[in-house]
Amino acid sequence: MSLLDERLDELELQIDDIKLPVRREYALSRIQSEAHKIAGTAAIVGFCDLGQIAAAVDTSIEEILAKACDKETIGQIHAQVEQLIEAGVLAVRSESAICQH
């Protein structure tokens, strides 16, 4: 779980910067990278919900980077990233698989 902790730390470092126009693009890029990595591995280790949230963040940021974004969109991404961090923290705390096949 230490790798997930590191990814969550990176998300927490970048989340507030998405609201700052001069840092937004870099922060979104870093968050997307971490979300993509989490999405790719979470389900494999049994955290389906975490993987789905991470995939949604990854996709949302991809769409934002392809076009101009407004304050509402930034707020939505911020909320998604917060949800991803919360899900990651729950996964780290539980340390048990939660996927049900």
What does the model show?
By secondary structure, the protein is mostly helical. It is built from 4 helices and no strands. The protein has helices at residues 2-15, 21-42, 48-65, 71-94. Helix 1 runs antiparallel to helix 2, helix 1 packs antiparallel against helix 4 (71-94) and helix 3 runs antiparallel to helix 4. It is globular, with a radius of gyration of 13 Å.
Radius of gyration: 13 Å
Q: What gross morphology would you assign?
A: globular
Task: Name the helix and strand elements from N-terminus to C-terminus, one letter apiece.
Answer: HHHH
Please summarize the sheet with the most strands.
none
Q: What structural category arises from helix and sheet content?
A: mainly alpha
Low-confidence stretches: none
In short:
With 101 residues, this protein is mainly α. The chain contains four helices and no strands.
Task: List key phrases describing it.
101 residues
